[in-house]
Amino acid sequence: MKQMKVGIQLIIYGDRVRQDLEGVLREVKSVGYEGIETGNLFNIADPEKVLRLLKEQDLAVAGVHVGYNDVADEGKLSEHMEYLKQVGGKFLICSGVARSEGIKAYEEAAETFNAVGKKCAEAGLVFCYHNHAWEFESFDGVKGIHRLAELTDPEVVRLCVDVYWVTIGGEDPVEFIRRYIERSVYFHFKDGVHGEFTELGKGKVNLVGCFQAIKEANTQWLIYEQDRTSKAVIESIRESMDYLRKLLAS
């Protein structure tokens, strides 16, 4: 296993990312994260400004997270790919599938993702699909996520495995990681209990087992994600980083 890097999804900061990107990046770096994942920042700052702010804090862009319509539309896809390259990122992370009914939504999405993945690969980028829990719904005995994996090319459609949502979806995240280990290079570590998001190690997700599993993969980024917190953000991201340090030392 190559040395994995540890980053943070900026969703926990909410609107502050738009209002004070510089302060957010400074705070992230002070806690010890090496990179960030975010939505596209075009409406916040041009790539030159983002690069300058990142360089000042010695941070990297791990990935940019978009939705299905952002990649299904060729114009939007090109825009996101170009921005990702301009800010020095490599991973284009996508959530969501086509709007068709049932398993057909995954079959249509698979066709789209194969084309998107090929374009990303040709541009030196990596396309990853990010799961939530709803992809684990079964249609005539076939779960959407597994149909999607079956129909996509593992060489160009990688997985961003969100271990929390795999758990909520009813599968063992450790087994899920091992099942798709050859195409899993980017992971979201998220935790929670009773429907509430928590700092890492305070919920019900088997993060220790997941970490041991991703050590067997070609993991490039481990991203801490917590959609919201009732604490000061700095407290939550510090607690989760402390937990990750213990995992990394294990």
What does this structure look like?
The protein has 250 residues and is α/β, with parallel strands linked by helices. The chain is 43% helix and 21% strand. The chain has helices spanning 16-19, 21-31, 47-57, 68-72, 74-86, 104-122, 144-151, 163-168, 173-179, 207-214, 233-248, and strands at residues 5-9, 35-38, 60-67, 91-95, 126-130, 138-139, 142-143, 157-162, 184-189, 191-193, 196-198, 221-224. The longest helix has 19 residues, at 104-122. 44% of the residues are buried.
List the helices and strands and how they pair.
Layout: E1 5-9, H1 16-19, H2 21-31, E2 35-38, H3 47-57, E3 60-67, H4 68-72, H5 74-86, E4 91-95, H6 104-122, E5 126-130, E6 138-139, E7 142-143, H7 144-151, E8 157-162, H8 163-168, H9 173-179, E9 184-189, E10 191-193, E11 196-198, H10 207-214, E12 221-224, H11 233-248
Helix pairs in contact: 6-7, 9-10
